[in-house]
Amino acid sequence: MVPTGLSELETERHIGGMGTNIARQIPRIDLSSFEERKYQIADELWSAATEIGFFQVYNHGIPQNDIDRAFSLATAFFALPKDAKARLPLKPGTNAGWEFQEQVRPSTGTPDHKESFQITLPRMTALWPTQQDAPDFREFLSHFEHQNWLLGMKILSCFAIKLGFDEKFFTELHDPSSPDYQCTLRLIHYMSMENALPEDFKRWRAGAHSDFDCLTLLHQRTGEGGLQVCPGKDAKSGAWTDVEPVSGYVTCNIGDMLMRWSDDKLLSTLHRVRMPQPDEYLGERLSIPFFCQANRDAIIQGPEKKYAPISAQNYLLERLKANFAATEAKGSPPETGAAL
Ligand SMILES: O=C(O)CCC(=O)C(=O)O
Ligand SMILES: [Fe+2]
Question: For 268-322, how does the pLDDT look when each residue is reduced to its tens digit (9 = 90+)?
Fold first, then answer.
């Protein structure tokens, strides 16, 4: 049995360079008629997740109008004056609240060139913008969070079947009615590079990392590219592939928590968001990931018991310490929470 020490962190520290570019096929999976086609879909998801760990789903059930509305609300929120957002600061040790260039990835050692607002429903006390500052924000994004949860649980039910767990195994451990619930909807704003300084182009919009969670669903907008993946967690190859945003598709990736839970069968894949080149679209970029993270009290251990059991809470706290060290130093010790 492998000890609980997080080798994932070791990998992250060695993958900050530019690397090279190669084309790879990112599998696209049709989720239509899910109930009737579940076992076929489960096979397709399993192949994609064991071979590359990144895939895109369509006919996924979240209406495009709702995705567009979520992006409009995010745009309006980030346009608020800085002091209005600063009243909703990211709470140390949680994925709740607003941060500005605070996430330092172990791979790069520099802050991501972005701001973000995280919604983890049980931890939002005093963290929602007012109705006056951001009309309908709370109501609509709570609804959108649930739509993403439904999609995430559909996909996770397929992995549960393939791993030999009960179909509802992961759904019960991502329970929105529990105070230990820790799925997170994150709104991200990568600032415009239109008048940026030459040294800003040397930074990363999001430095190379793997996600900490079980499964990430990522909404992007057509024309706002930059996401790249390097499959296989093979730090040495450094061969990156662009994942272009396509309307109607939700980009998905496996995170470290599910990799561990599947005894390393499902692959958590390195990814990053690069800066645009001077001849590309230089405007702002928005993205909205939803992170499916098991409840804090869930115990992570795969069917083959390759790793010692660890609670989802402790697992995420380890990752948090490595990513938000500066924020924690400024604030109080981490609340028992999560981080991405
Ligand atoms: O913005 C993106 O396209 C990816 C964001 C991401 O990887 C993350 O927040 O973990
Ligand atoms: Fe990510």
Answer: 999 999 999 888 999 999 999 999 999 999 999 999 999 999 999 998 887 766 6
What's the maximum distance between 2 C-alpha atoms anywhere in the chain?
A: 54
Check whether 56 has a pLDDT greater than 60: yes
CATH code for residues 7-329: 2.60.120.330
Domain ranges of the chain: 7-329
Please, are residues 113 and 203 in contact by the beta-carbon 8 Å criterion?
yes
Q: Quote the tokens at residue 133.
A: 């500052």
Q: Is the dihedral of CA 4, 158, 144, 296 positive or negative?
A: negative
Question: What are the angstrom distances between the C-alpha of 98 and each of 49, 80, 117, 285?
Answer: 31, 12, 4, 17
Name the closest ligand to CA 206: 1
pLDDT digits (tens, 9 = 90+) for 222-265: 999 999 999 875 556 788 999 999 999 999 999 999 999 999 99
Give the rounded distance of the alpha carbon of 103 from its chain centre: 13
C-alpha span between 164 and 168 (Å, rounded): 11
Split at pLDDT 50, 70, 90, the class of 202 is confident
ipTM, two decimals: 0.99
Which atom of ligand 1 is nearest to 220's Cα?
3
Centre of ligand 1 to C-alpha 218, Å, is: 7
Asked if residue 289 has its Cβ within 6 Å of ligand 1, the reply is: yes
